[in-house]
């Protein structure tokens, strides 16, 4: 593979721009029918046979043999031992990141996650009661690229919401196994546990954890087994098997969004050091070859400068091969007529991560309608947000920021409407409700309202 | 069919209670493989051929022939004419209900639907920007049992959220057609339009509307055609074809929950007139034969009184046949040891509608953790909430209140995280982020953070 990273160079002034732009953006999550069928079978089997099925699939796919599910449970002592084994700097970083993420999510809860109510002029009480979910499951991918930050980002908002039980599943596949629950990268010999992930479980506060993965882990969480408690919602990223299983159990339990490849879009006015922007584009591209890094900028000279920094910095990157493939296949440096046009294009993309790399970011922010997270100003690298600024790094991808939101406290709460109609309110509301109910041909609805009237009218016929 | 309604009589003191209770609650949304395949084909076809495919399916399934999609568009004049054709009382009821629903949802938006931000001690700005979706689609089932109240409950929160375009689809199948988009009930000859629904579109404010339904309408909204604009989210109830199509387009657009049969659970302490409670049970049962009405009460005498009222009131009900089938197959009158136990059982069910029919409802409300809507006190019949109290009547069913919420303004908004790291903040956060990024083997992430440090350290190797 060439070690030259050459993102596509587009210009909005070019007559071919729309077609080139569409081609670059195109990505579709093809559903694999074979995986879907296999996952459906696994779900049914775990639902019917519980622990026994989970043990069998874990042996078959992860190469990890155990005679009982208890052997696959991690303890609080395991978490603590992993934490204690880390160098001080890593321990401190985990704790500092968790503290900041917690503090942001506490502010989020205050801003909209509390119950509310009011009484209208008739004395009728109206409102919503906000309560935490009882129990949630967090899926953490296994293998080499296991991300402790992802565990923090899933567990902390659940905690802040008030969820009492957080159940983690994390596969520890043995090298050479089929690893349906892994992430495509093999691990070392005996199903090795990632100390950083276990330490993060200690810091973020996980209630129980099992070294299981894939569709079988999703099924165990959704239906419950003799050992694994049934949860109310499952969050966290996983491979195609996990994604398919989550989609299928949706309705039995809640799920978070199914994530596509990660994306960054940088809107640059040319005021940020070009090497910073180049490294920000790398930081997205290094995730995987399907990741997408796009720069939008009205200055051709600045785009040139960023390309030069890409060339200069690339050789020092350990993950250069992935970066090159990602930038060459999916990256783009787009010359726009203006920052306003750049903002309009950004809205069409609705990117997961949006850096406004400008000396005047608040001028552009109001123009940006769709994005998972907006990073304002030169100092706000996406990577600060990924780890420790406070906001969640689980964000809507593939344009779904048009209609969905970052993972948050609200994902671990639900609402119940509260209504207490006063006797006066029953008079006002009763005749309105009855009129509409008769109109819909629902006489019992109408009579239930009319019976509460001081003077109960005769029943009308359907109309 | 017998016109005797005899809901199951259970008692928590009975040793068989758990088994009987489980049997009564059991309901599963079987997915029909044949429908799934057919829907997948329809979606692909509409995606590829647009209007032409929609026209063909509308002719085939709804028996409604049109040469262009323009012929299937309803205009604002159609809405107004329908509204003008209604009796005064119906017009007033539609307007009053819409006004109250709007006022409640405005309070809901204030309570948690506004942007927020704060600055930390380093001057770093953190927050969330809350914005409306651009364009949403509302599915309204066609046929006889078309519910204007449902249109109000979907359109008003979208409006309050600030959604600019609300696109309605409502099939007008011709009698005898296959009617994949209908609700199982046939309509009169020429694909008749329901004036109440069109009048509700006028009152609630629908931007554009098309007389199409089924999977083809969902596809048109999700992918867009030459005539039907692509939306960001689709809400509203529909039959099995519509539900399957919504599930399949989820991810391309947002969707609301897929609703199961409607349910009411009444917790009664015996203080409410028994005939009111009997009628409330009817008002759920009259929806359809799968609807579920359950009474939980610690007084055997009161349960007897409710059964007597059921017997007395049933013959006057036009929908008695449906009520009888629903109550006999799925209804239950459950004698509990106490109100506390009744609350605990209610939490296990997580009902869609929960009436606390008590002289002291606020004593029990804090014990109730899971419910779509909680109706407090004798005057608060579910039917008042269904139409005009203000809260939304689109509620989580089938136990999904464990993890989901009533439809609300929040369903038509999305959030973007806001982060603006100060130069001081970049120093504090940079070293934490770099430490974690190195730990995860993501060096570009680490370098993007380190480059913003006043003193840039040498790059470390992966570990």
Automatic annotation (TrEMBL), chains A, B:
Its cofactor is Zn(2+). GO terms for molecular function: histidinol dehydrogenase activity. Substrate binds at residues 262, 284, 287, 353, 386, 440, 445. NAD(+) binds at residues 139, 216, 239. CDD domains: Histidinol_dh. The active site is at residues 352-353. Its EC number is 1.1.1.23. Zn(2+) binds at residues 284, 287, 386, 445. InterPro entries: Ald_DH/histidinol_DH (IPR016161), Histidinol_DH_CS (IPR001692), Histidinol_DH_monofunct (IPR022695), Hstdl_DH (IPR012131). The keyword Metal-binding applies. Binds 1 zinc ion per subunit. Keywords: Amino-acid biosynthesis, Histidine biosynthesis, Metal-binding, NAD, Oxidoreductase, Zinc. The keyword Metal-binding applies. It comes from the Bacteria. It catalyses: L-histidinol + 2 NAD(+) + H2O = L-histidine + 2 NADH + 3 H(+). Pathway: Amino-acid biosynthesis; L-histidine biosynthesis; L-histidine from 5-phospho-alpha-D-ribose 1-diphosphate: step 9/9. Catalyzes the sequential NAD-dependent oxidations of L-histidinol to L-histidinaldehyde and then to L-histidine. HAMAP family: HisD. Belongs to the histidinol dehydrogenase family. This is Histidinol dehydrogenase. It comes from Hydrogenophaga laconesensis. The gene is hisD.
């Amino acid at each position: 593979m060439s070690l030259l990273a050459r993102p596509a160079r587009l210009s909005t002034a070019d007559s071919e721009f729309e077609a080139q732009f569409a081609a670059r953006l195109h990505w579709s999550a093809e559903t694999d029918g074979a995986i879907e069928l296999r996952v459906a079978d696994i779900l049914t089997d775990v639902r019917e046979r519980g622990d026994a099925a989970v043990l069998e699939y874990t042996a078959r796919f992860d190469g990890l043999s155990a005679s009982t599910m208890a052997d696959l449970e991690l303890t609080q002592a395991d978490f603590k031992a992993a934490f204690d084994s880390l160098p001080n700097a890593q321990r401190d970083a985990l704790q500092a990141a968790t503290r900041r993420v917690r503090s942001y999510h506490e502010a989020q809860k205050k801003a909209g996650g509390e119950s509310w109510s009011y009484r209208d002029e008739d004395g009728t009480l109206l409102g919503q009661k906000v309560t935490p979910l009882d129990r949630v499951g967090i899926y953490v991918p296994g293998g080499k690229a296991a991300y402790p930050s992802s565990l923090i980002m899933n567990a902390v908002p659940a905690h802040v919401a008030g969820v009492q039980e957080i159940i983690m599943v994390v596969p520890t596949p043995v090298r050479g196994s089929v690893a349906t629950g892994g992430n495509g990268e093999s691990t070392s010999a005996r199903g090795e546990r990632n100390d950083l992930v276990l330490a993060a479980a200690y810091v973020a506060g996980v209630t129980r954890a099992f070294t299981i993965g894939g569709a079988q882990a999703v099924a165990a969480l959704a239906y419950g087994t003799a050992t694994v408690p049934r949860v109310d919602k499952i969050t966290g990223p996983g491979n195609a098997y996990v994604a398919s299983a989550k989609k299928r159990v949706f309705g039995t339990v809640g799920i978070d969004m199914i994530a596509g490849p990660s994306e960054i879009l940088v809107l640059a006015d040319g005021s940020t050091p070009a090497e910073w922007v180049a490294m920000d584009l790398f930081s997205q591209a290094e995730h995987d070859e399907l990741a997408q890094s796009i720069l939008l900028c009205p200055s051709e000279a600045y785009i040139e400068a960023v390309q030069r920094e890409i060339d200069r910095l690339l050789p020092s990157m350990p993950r250069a091969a992935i970066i090159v493939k990602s930038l060459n296949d999916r990256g783009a440096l787009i010359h726009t007529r203006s920052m306003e046009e750049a903002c309009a294009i950004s809205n069409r993309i609705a990117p997961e991560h949006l850096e406004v790399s400008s000396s005047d970011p608040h001028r552009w922010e109001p123009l940006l309608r769709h994005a998972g997270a907006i990073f304002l100003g030169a100092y706000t690298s996406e990577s600060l947000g990924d780890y420790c600024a406070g906001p969640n790094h689980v964000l809507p991808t593939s344009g779904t920021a048009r209609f969905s939101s970052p993972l948050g406290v609200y994902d671990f709460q639900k609402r119940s409407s509260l209504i207490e109609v006063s006797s006066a309110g029953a008079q006002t509301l009763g005749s309105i409700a009855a009129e509409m109910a008769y109109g819909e041909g629902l006489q019992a609805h109408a009579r239930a309202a009319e019976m509460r009237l001081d003077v109960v009218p005769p029943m009308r016929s359907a109309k």
